[in-house]
Design goal:
39% helix, TIM Barrel, Enolase-like, domain 1, 2 domains, magnesium, menaquinone biosynthesis, Enolase-like_N, alpha/beta, metal-binding, EC 4.2.1.113, three-stranded antiparallel beta sheet, binds magnesium ion, binds 2-succinylbenzoate
């Protein structure tokens, strides 16, 4: 077993309503289990998960407990609410080793009856002025994306409406548009934004309201422009969100929800409740990104997912076994994550 710390720079900062993401620091874990070496990644994100230092100590303790008492004991100590990224790192390594030992790709280890070659993905377009936003949208469409997610909420609603309208006019009706407000709006702003986005055929807005405003989200949900919850899941259980009809779409970030196993369970529950799961990363390294691809691959007919985030990074932990081509991401079919541990490192 080992833990290596890494820091990955983004090629350009991802500008959002809650500030830019410029680098991603995290931990790469190796765990020996059933004669295999499993790979795991814990890449905490401030505001979404535990801190890097808390993650480091929790993951270190989990790996030690796993060696001395077994992995069931280690899992018991890894509370999602306290250390989702550490739980993600450990469980990914454990599942990678298990799936390798079984000779199946991770997504089939999550759901043995599944066969899936590729998963549709959205392009992620950060906040920028209208002309820059249009340019990025056009580039994504030229590369084969037919679903774009635009960050909004960093400007007045009227300015965002102008940006989204400019993109709609540039790309035409055949492209799905989504927006992500990252909790920036008041109820009044959210109502007016969704009203204006309707005629522009925006499929849904992620987190139009603060994470805790479940009543407000429930009021907005179910309309022509859907409501997706993301930040809400940091502090609220999925059962509560579903119970209160506070979402049309659930954003499933394995790094925030405790790992690929928990994320898959949550996605399945959402689907069963009529809420569409969309699997995304927190702009992770290749190990966590690939784990998220397997989670998406385990969901039948999954909606386009926010997994095309490799291109936001200037550097990575190793070769990418799940490249994006023509708006879809390839699902690795070799055992486990489908990565060679000897090719991965900080
Ligand atoms: O969903 C995507 O397209 C990419 C992921 C993304 O937007 C994101 C990345 C890091 C942190 C938060 C978010 C978010 O969805 O709010
Ligand atoms: Mg979001």
């Amino acid at each position: 077993m080992s833990i290596d710390e890494f820091s990955l720079a983004l090629s350009t900062p991802l500008e959002t309503a809650s500030g830019p993401i410029e680098t991603r620091q995290g931990l790469l874990a190796r765990y020996d289990h059933r004669d295999e070496t499993g790979l795991g990644e814990a890449t905490p994100l401030p505001g979404w998960t535990e801190s890097l230092s808390a993650c480091r100590s929790t993951l270190g303790r989990a790996l030690e407990t796993a060696e001395s008492e077994g992995h069931a004991s280690a899992l018991l100590d890894l509370e999602v609410a306290d250390a989702p990224a550490a739980r993600h790192g450990f469980t990914t390594a454990l599942f990678d080793a298990d799936a390798r030992a079984e000779g199946v790709p991770l997504y089939q280890w999550l759901d043995e009856d599944r066969r899936c070659e590729s998963v549709p993905v959205n392009a992620t377009i950060g906040d920028a002025d209208a002309s820059e936003t249009v340019e990025r949208a056009q580039t994504a469409v030229d590369r084969g994306f037919d679903c774009l997610k635009l960050k909004v909420g960093a400007r007045p609603v009227a300015a965002d409406v102008d940006r989204v309208r400019a993109v709609r006019e540039a790309v035409g009706d055949g492209v799905t548009l989504r927006a992500d407000a990252n909790a920036a709006w008041s109820r009044e702003e959210a109502v007016s934004a969704l009203e204006e986005f309707g005629p522009l055929d925006v499929a849904y807005v992620e987190q139009p309201l603060p994470a805790d405003d479940l009543d407000g989200l429930a009021d907005l949900a179910g309309g022509p422009v859907g409501v997706a919850v993301d930040e809400t899941l940091v502090d609220h259980r999925v059962a509560e969100v579903l119970e209160r009809d506070a979402a049309d779409v659930l954003i499933v970030k394995p790094m925030v929800l405790g790992g690929p196993g928990d994320a898959h369970t949550i996605a399945t529950r959402a689907r069963d409740a009529g809420v569409e799961p969309v699997v995304t990363t927190t702009v992770d390294g290749v190990v966590a990104r690939t784990a998220a691809v397997h989670v998406a691959a385990a969901i039948p007919d999954v909606a386009p997912c926010g997994l095309a985030t490799a291109e936001l990074l200037a550097e990575d932990l190793g070769p990418d076994p799940a490249p994006v081509d023509d708006g879809r991401i390839t699902v690795p079919q070799s055992p486990g994550l489908g990565m060679d541990p000897s090719e991965v490192g900080p």
